[in-house]
Design a protein that fits this description.
Length: 148
């Protein structure tokens, strides 16, 4: 596995663990839907995901078996708290917090407007789902649960 993929996988794993922990802890207002569904379940109506984000997540969930709606929601919450204008200290941008070099290689035109815009949630969420599938393929020979 090349160093870029290893680094991306490490960041992906760290962000995913944090996101799942946050969604499990802060699942919903007055109940534990995220705890009940976990990273492999679907998004329920009481999970704290804005409706406009929920639509985009549901559109791209299932692109491969490892990419569920809950997984995408946990990642996006962890990366940006669903803020499409987010920018990290190290230069990651948008709702999915892609680094520009990673975006150049894995960016998608999720809304069909002919532009791959790192700050456009439709593009970034489509790219996140596709990138997660790429990472899942990279670790398919690793023993254990490929999502974890």
């Amino acid at each position: 596995m090349n160093k870029g993929i290893q680094a991306g996988l490490g960041l992906f794993t760290a962000g995913l663990v944090s996101g799942v922990a946050l969604l499990t802890t802060f699942g919903g207002a007055d109940n534990a839907s995220a705890r009940e569904n976990g990273p492999g379940g679907g998004i329920t109506t009481d999970t704290p995901v804005p409706g406009w984000v929920r639509e985009l997540i549901n559109k791209h969930a299932g692109e491969c078996p490892q990419v569920t709606a809950s997984l995408l929601a946990a990642q996006l919450y962890t990366e940006s708290k669903f803020d499409s204008d987010a920018k990290s200290r190290v230069g990651a941008l948008g709702i999915a917090q892609f680094m520009p070099a990673t975006w150049a290689q894995h960016g998608k035109d999720g809304d069909g407007d002919g532009v791959k815009d790192i700050r456009n949630p439709a593009d970034a969420i489509a790219a996140q789902a596709a990138y997660d599938c790429t990472l899942a393929k990279e670790v398919k020979s690793v023993p254990g649960d490929s999502t974890r």
